[in-house]
Write a structure and sequence with these properties.
Length: 360
């Protein structure tokens, strides 16, 4: 049984071409080889009676790093990280042979002879949809990795498409929390101070490797103070680290959750305490430059999910990579700090892929 399904459709201004899609989120399965979610499957409706011409579809991944009207140091404000163009009309392949999913079959059946199926595969080395939050006073488009499917009529592939005869549909590439449990993250440090016989130990431990958006994080802090200094000014924070990789590699570190404790650990005593933090976009609305998950239209979003990158493609990735860590700091005679990395992601939605199972 195939479940009832939303179909997204959009037409060009002159109605010459339309795109139908079963969904707009495409899943990058970081921990499996299941290719089903990595394929963007669509049907293109061509109204050939309007204009006997060639019709192409294009999947693009664009890295935009400024406003349209802004020229950064003479460099363009956007760059195509990935571009794949296919001819859909006249079809290069037998229509029946390239039918891949039940959804495509249903659409072809419903739309009749002017409909042509097509699909794109997402390569491994693309970032997910992500953007930097603009300041409330900023206008226009901002730094973001965006995906789009575009269908257009043209005389040939190189020719610029006519705006009236092209249609663009924004899509998203997303990753969900991996199934595997991972190791419990923990980190510790030992400091020796002058004039002290014994060191100061500090350790921070989380409960698990992956947290879901909105889930509180319990951070167990152990301080064993053998030194002759008093430990004070303990702070616990969650930091978001965004690596923007394009012409150069820039790293931005932003605190997204923070607690300042009044606890002290006098010389010769110890402390074991659980602090709880919950990093949320709601507490960071006005913060310019925070990485957020890509959004469609005016839907709300959340802090960017951690990027999971397969080791072998890491160096090729352009765009934005996001990671998180808990940082515990304290002052003794100098600053003592530990950092514990973790993943912040959405859980895998249940039953998501049912209707995409191959029909034959
Ligand atoms: C964090 O601590 C609270 C209070 O002790 C507990 O209810 C909760 O289950 C803990 N969270 C996790 C993820 O273990
Ligand atoms: C490393 C160390 O000596 N830690 C000491 C800190 O203070 C507590 C409480 O007095 C001691 O039990 C620890 O041995």
């Amino acid at each position: 049984m195939s479940p009832k399904h939303t179909v997204y459709k959009k037409f060009s201004h002159d109605k010459s071409v339309g795109v139908y899609m079963g969904r707009r989120d495409f899943v990058d399965h970081s921990d499996s080889v299941d290719p089903v979610g990595n394929v963007c499957v669509c049907v293109c409706l061509v109204n050939v009676s309007v204009w006997p011409i060639l019709v192409y579809v294009m999947l693009s991944c664009t890295f935009r790093y400024g406003r349209d009207d802004m020229d950064v140091l003479g460099m363009a404000f956007r760059r195509d990280v990935f571009l794949c163009t296919r001819q859909v009309y006249p079809p290069l392949q037998d229509r029946e042979r390239c039918v891949h999913t039940r959804l495509q079959e249903r659409l072809l059946h419903k739309l009749g002879h002017n409909a042509y199926p097509f699909f794109f595969e997402f390569p491994d080395n693309l970032p997910c949809s992500v953007g930097l939050q603009p300041a409330p006073t900023d206008v226009g488009k901002h730094c973001a990795v965006e995906f789009e499917v575009k269908a257009f009529c043209a005389e040939n592939q190189e020719e610029k498409s006519h705006k009236r005869s092209s249609v663009r549909l924004a899509i998203r590439k997303v990753q969900y929390a991996p199934n595997k449990k991972g190791v419990v993250p923990s980190s510790e440090t030992a400091c020796e101070f002058m004039m002290s016989d014994r060191p100061l130990h500090m350790r921070a431990t989380l409960e698990k490797e992956t947290y879901y958006h909105g889930e509180p994080i319990n951070i167990t802090v152990d301080i064993d103070n053998g030194s002759n200094k008093d430990v004070k000014s303990i702070t616990i924070s969650v930091e978001q680290i965004t690596n923007v990789v394009l012409y150069s590699s820039d790293k931005y570190v932003k605190t997204v959750a923070y607690e300042e404790s009044t606890d002290t650990v006098p010389s010769g005593t110890s402390l074991k305490k659980v602090y709880t933090l919950c990093p949320l976009l709601a507490d960071n609305r006005e913060r310019r430059g925070l990485a957020l998950d890509g959004k469609l239209k005016h839907e709300d979003t959340n802090l960017a999910s951690s990027s999971i990158v397969k080791a072998e493609v890491l160096k090729e990735i352009l765009g934005m990579l996001v990671s998180y860590r808990v940082v515990v700091k304290a002052t003794a005679s100098g600053e003592v700090a530990v950092e514990v990395p973790f993943l912040l992601m959405h859980p895998k939605p249940e039953g998501e892929l049912v209707s995409y199972i191959h029909s034959s």
